[in-house]
Amino acid sequence: MNPIQFNVKLITPLLMHGSNPRACDPIGLTGKALRGSWRFWFRAMIGGMVPDILKEGLLKHEGEVFGSSDEKIGAKFRMVIENISSNKDKAIYGGFKKKDRNGNVTNEDQTFAGYKEDSEFLIKILPRKNIDRGVLLSTIWLWGNLGGIGQRTRRGFGSPVIKSVNNSDPFKQCRLCITPEFHGSVDIENHLKEGLSRCWEIFKAWLGVTAGDMATNPGPTDRGYWNASFFTLNSLGQVAVGDNSFPLNQAIEKIHGNHHCNLLGSFHPRMASPVFTRLHKVDTGFIPVVTWSKQSGISNNCGQNHTDCIKEYLNNAGVTKWLNR
After folding, report:
1. Which distant-in-sequence residues (6+ apart) come within 8 Å of 69 by Cβ?
2. How far apart are CA 112 and CA 17, in angstroms?
3. Which candidate, 5, 6, 11, places its Cα nearest to that of 182?
4. Cβ partners under 8 Å of residue 166, min gap 6
5. Are 199 and 45 within 8 A, CB to CB?
6. 151-209 pLDDT, tens per residue?
7. Secondary structure class of 8 (helix, strand, coil)
8. pTM value?
């Protein structure tokens, strides 16, 4: 089959570590990290389309796109990554201050080793014959517009932009638009609405399901979503766009999160954040885009319910425009 080829430009710093957790991975962007990120968004989409997906065969469907150890030929595609341009930095600002041994906030910035913004990589995918290219490309599109990669990816780091190579756009065959230049939040809203609805159609056709229309489903404050042990994307009402743009470091500060509510992720007990925030670049800076997955059965420590914590986080980040409005 013909290869799938495109560039990925990371518009926010990439915190990608190898065997040494305090140093950059010498390779930069890795195929293992990409596959893991793409699997995350595949599960997020399919988990919102089939209510009882764990019983309906999540691993089976995932194996049809990414491969499985149960098959004679495991991987459904090979991947080659070329580092076009990248710049290592030992002190990338994390958006918050360090804490001392007693847990008190200091005046010293928390920094990480990584690759500075505008690092760019060429991605070349060599698919096998028995793979659905449309579902794979839709999954990559979701990642490229809602997700990120690397450490602190749910708080704006490693935000990718998909670019064509030599004016060749593999996403055009699926009627998906690669990331254009945005001039404001309205441009981002329109791009996401159109692309998400198209991804929904491609996945529905592949799964053979008829229920659910992403463009008309209720928003996150109107109903709960299916209980799932993983991040789920079920509706345009789970995606919100920021009102204003900010310089990069200021944008990262705003989306760092609420330290007092463990419904947004915590260390004790360890829990992944149910909000995934990435940044999109516009003429005047960066605008956050937040995707929310409502998880159930989680206790909190701040006296608020799940929705209140999400609202507080979004208000602090200046994010109020839900895509289903």
Report:
1. none
2. 10
3. 11
4. none
5. yes
6. 899 889 999 999 998 888 899 888 898 889 999 999 999 999 999 999 999 998 998 86
7. strand
8. 0.89
